[in-house]
Specification:
1 helix, globular
Length: 100
């Protein structure tokens, strides 16, 4: 995982392993649907690519995000996401994350 926070172009890298199954995926999807203050702007799945855009209001902050996950085979994905925070959230105005 690589992430970049702006302003300042602060980069972070890390490694993790996630063990998933259909029950876990369904749980995460249900939680996302019930998030207060968030609305799905766009969602699509085609040709092994899942895209989701969200607009959330958390307190006085607005978070707009867009993420794309490309399923490469049964055990690997490539994901890219970008979020903006208005006003800045703990000094961060936008974040870009790449995960393989």
């Amino acid at each position: 995982m690589q992430s970049t926070d702006d302003p300042g172009n602060k980069k972070t890298e890390g490694t993790s392993t996630i063990c998933r199954n259909h029950a876990y995926d369904q749980h995460v999807q249900a939680e996302a649907k019930n998030m207060k203050g968030c609305a799905k702007v766009n969602e699509s799945f085609a040709d092994g690519k899942y895209t989701l855009e969200m607009h959330c209001t958390v307190g006085a902050s607005v978070i707009d995000s867009k993420g794309t996950s490309t399923f490469q085979d049964d055990t690997s994905t490539h994901s890219e996401s970008h979020a903006t925070y208005t006003p800045a959230f703990y000094g961060v105005s936008e974040t870009t994350m790449i995960q393989d």
